[in-house]
């Protein structure tokens, strides 16, 4: 899924578009399987009861299962899928949210420092947290669980250097 073209400037090219590391999606999937199985087992056993009010108990079990599925599985999955980390040839963008959207953009010309942290597990699975400091009033962007964080940092530095060179050559030719 590409980044929406209407969010890009004229001639802006997306160099990297990713979401937080896939490990963020593992928990919601596991919760989905666990609560679906527990709900199915509970309804199956309740249906075997010889009791007049069992339909209300089954309804309560179904409602509780749906609430838990939505709360612990569907909402986190949507939150993960709606978080975008985008690097173009002109800027760095972070956007999250489906209903209520939050977004931050830093032009490459304003990128001062890029750093990242990884613990042992993050190094094994190939992700980390990235901090991008800028020379603007907005300060910094903290990207959480960036896949291939070391390659992303190298790409960002290369694009920032290319942007500086392009701006310098445009300044000389004017």
From TrEMBL:
InterPro entries xrefs: YdbS-like_PH
Chain ranges of the YdbS-like PH domain: 80-154
Keyword Cell cycle attributed: no
Keywords: Membrane, Transmembrane, Transmembrane helix
TM ranges: 29-48, 55-78
Alphabetized Pfam families for the sequence: bPH_2
This protein's record includes keyword Glycoprotein: no
Name this protein carries in UniProt: PH (Pleckstrin Homology) domain-containing protein
Species this protein is from: Glycomyces artemisiae
